[in-house]
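Researcher: We plan to redesign the surface later, but first we want a full-length starting point. Tokens attached.
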């Protein structure tokens, strides 16, 4: 969907950047970023299971990308080797999917207030784990395919309060640093994107 393509555009990778996508399957956003790097740098795409990583690897092969790799990694588990290495960190995290109800109507029968709360807590757990991968002056892009405030704006506020070395990028989304796209807007699904910059501290 066009809204998910905005993640790569929001990340705005520069030639030679090292990018980590912590929940990448099936790999559309990661491959888009790798293509924008025009053969330079590297994109490391991770997901939880062999099946999901296999989907990413199929995308890598289909696009013929030499600057991208995939591996199995649980985003809730810290990776000391990745600390301070990412110019860009993509956190397109598991969510309630309330922005894609138009295409996935079964979501309305599965999602409950309790499950939304559980997902918001998981998102915070992942952000709390992976933020250390970002270099000073690096970028963290947080996105979901939901319109739920607890998973979006509330998580942004929580993240800034807990990790003050990150701030919203005021050059994005008319000075707000975050953008909520509603279902049908621009002919797209509902989607949320926030762009953070890590200070030198």
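Model: Full-length starting sequence:
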């Amino acid at each position: 969907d066009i809204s998910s393509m905005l993640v790569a555009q929001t990340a705005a990778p520069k030639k030679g950047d090292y990018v980590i996508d912590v929940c990448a399957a099936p790999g559309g956003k990661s491959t888009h970023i790798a293509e924008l790097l025009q053969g330079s740098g590297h994109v490391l795409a991770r997901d939880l299971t062999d099946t999901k990583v296999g989907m990413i690897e199929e995308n890598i092969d289909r696009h013929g990308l030499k600057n991208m790799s995939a591996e199995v990694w649980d985003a809730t588990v810290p990776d000391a080797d990745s600390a301070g290495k990412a110019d860009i960190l993509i956190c397109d995290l598991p969510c309630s999917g309330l922005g894609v109800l138009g295409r996935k109507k079964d979501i309305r029968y599965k999602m409950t207030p309790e499950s939304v709360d559980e997902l918001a807590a998981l998102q915070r757990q992942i952000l709390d784990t992976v933020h250390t991968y970002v270099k000073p002056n690096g970028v963290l892009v947080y996105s979901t395919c939901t319109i739920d405030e607890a998973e979006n704006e509330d998580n942004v506020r929580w993240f800034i309060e807990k990790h003050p070395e990150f701030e919203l990028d005021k050059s994005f989304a008319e000075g707000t640093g975050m953008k909520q796209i509603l279902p049908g807007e621009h002919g797209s699904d509902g989607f949320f994107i926030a762009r953070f910059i890590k200070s030198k501290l």
